[in-house]
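new request in #modeling-help
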Amino acid sequence: MSRLMSLLIAIALVAPSLRVRADEWLEFRGVGGASRVKEGSLPVELSAADVRWSVDLPGRGLSGVLVVGDRAFVTTSEGPTQDRLHLVCLSASTGKILWDRQVWATGRTMCHPKTSVAAPTPCSDGKRVYAIYSSNDLVCFDLDGNLQWLRGITYDYPNVSNSLGMSSSLLVTENTVIVPVENDSESYSLGIDAATGENRWRLDRPKGANWTSPVILEPGLVALQSKAGIDAIRAADGSTAWSYTEGADTVSSSALSDGVLYVPSNGITALTLDPADPSKQPTQAWRENTLSPATASCVVAGDALYTINGAGVLTAGDRETGKRRWQLRLQGPYSGTPVTDGKHLWAVNEAGLVQVVELGAKEGKVVATLDLGDEILCSPAAADGALYVRSNTKLHKIGR
Amino acid sequence: MVSFQRFLFGSGAVVSLLLVGGGVVVASPVTDSLPAIRAVDHEGKGNAAAAKAWGVIAAADPAALPDILAAMDGANPLAANWLRAAVDAVVAKAGGSAKLPIDSLVRFLGETKHDPRARRLAFDLVKGADPARADTLLDGMVEDPSVELRRDAVAKVIARAEALKAGEKKEEALAAYQKAFSASRNVEQIQALATAIRDLGGTVDLTRHFGFLRSWQIVGPFDNTEGKGFATVYSPEEKLDLSAALDGKEGKVSWQPVETGDEYGIVNVNLTYPPPAPPADAKPAEGPKEGLKGVIAYAVTEFVSAEDRPAEIRLGCKNAWKIWLNGSPVFEREEYHRGMEIDQYRMPVTLRQGPNTILIKICQDEQRRPWTTEWEFQLRVCDEVGTAIHPPASPASDAK
């Protein structure tokens, strides 16, 4: 096992991403949910001058940003009952709003005051953008703002809701949009035809509030996380390829990197996928309960993985064994998941303080900070040499 | 309703006319496309045809905006959203609000037969082009069927009241606040107004304004160990006999009257069924010291309606619940302790003239956390705008 892990990691360190270019960020936490960027692609030294633009948004939210080509996409909600749902497209270069489309919520908009109706991060396949909101309204626009289709998942299934708010993000793979709407009552995940918006399948899922997001294991195969564990689901028909049944967190999500799925289960549990066929039952590489992510999910790069606990302590773990290497207390708390290139990590706390951590083998060190002076609850996006973070009022671009 | 009629004109020409929302519109590529939009339905039905139609509508001249808005009359929420997004595209294509048909939109706005959200959207378009004109229009909208338009109109009255208060004109200020209170249907606005009126020595009856039901008959506790009672049919679901002794969780139980004194109508079931006092030598118990766990209660009340009419039952509850009206199930939700707020659940119903029986099942789970103690609900009966429906003999005044 250890030899296989070493081989997978060695391959990963030299292989470029096959799915997207470095100038794109198409889903929550980027490819595989690993929050990883190309080494050296983000600025380490930060100052106020690195804030390229800050743009007022038409509404609030904490969903993450997508970057598709030279366009950035973000969702917001506004109105007395937060029932006006926006998908906003901006120029990634200038921050100019290129188009803004609205629909009305057809499901409930009640949520905890810290979250928002615009909590789930949208996703894109490079041709279209798919966005969902806590009201379970699901829309699909092309990159120019032409409506392709829409759905009201609560309109279809009236007990799909969560009084604290829904936040699971979307994925799209092999022309299927993965739509997790898992909750205490009528709990489903759906596979929806990316072209028409019609159901390919609808799975009964464990009843229980679930704010985690799925991960693409390989094209056409996704990992759905719940309190029961992980289910690997075929996007084409919703059939189950394999299940891990030892429980998992319902807040922080799993991350895939180089054939290993890092699951927030009993700390972190590393599941090694079959390199020849990820649809086969994975093997457990290790389990480490001292790695304990809170709201932010774990991130993976180089030969380490990183978690941030509820006290704001960043912990580095060895990817091969899970053993803890070092800890560093950051200024928290954190709602968003940081990004890393393996040499540095960019973490944005709820107060809007960007902390750049130099990741050494034996210790971590904060080498730069930038105070945005704005409450940041989203997970940053990273593309084309810049970080994108949003607040309840603004979208900021930091970097090139 | 949307339908096409063909008419033979004097010249012998056949012209297609589109009937939208009771009005007649000369057919055009836009109006020809509206039926496809209005045909969308659950689970993506009609999306493909709607996408083609949307392209035509979104490319329309701004002069078509009133027709597009009128097509929302009677449309289902999904169709309304297709049209909503098309309006954004039409406005953007027009290159600014100055090119919009403002007079036509003002006329549309003035016709209260139209869909409230369509009228609100028309108002926003007018406001974008001519804020002063929009502001003037609000003066006639304090009783508007659009909750949002009414809210903004009431806000103007509140502003006048505040100015009067600042000018030491207490009586005039109080009268203005009272006018605003009577008109408002927005929860936050109502609560703020109640405070303002009381600060000036006035009185308000919040219970009556909202229409919360205060008088109930309650029976319990029944067993809800492991949450199984939610699906268990106890005797009140089969037959309502308020004089009968029923088999409860720990012996015979009987109905008893409860009159809540809470001005927001909260019925605290824990007050009716407090846990038994611990023995004098008992050690401090873990978890909450008040409230039974793993139990169910039923509450029933009679609501007299002056006529057969549509209405809404609106519920706030953080426990799992089921509701029946006149013996027929209305809705149910199996969610515990995710939060409670006024109008958390809105359920359209039809009241019959005379007495109507409202039965609610309130389930308490077995969680032992500080936020899992509550076992309560608040329920009101109102119209779709949120105006309380009162029994026929009740006086009308609710603010003094």
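bot summary: Residues 1-18, 396-400 of chain B have pLDDT under 50 and may be disordered.
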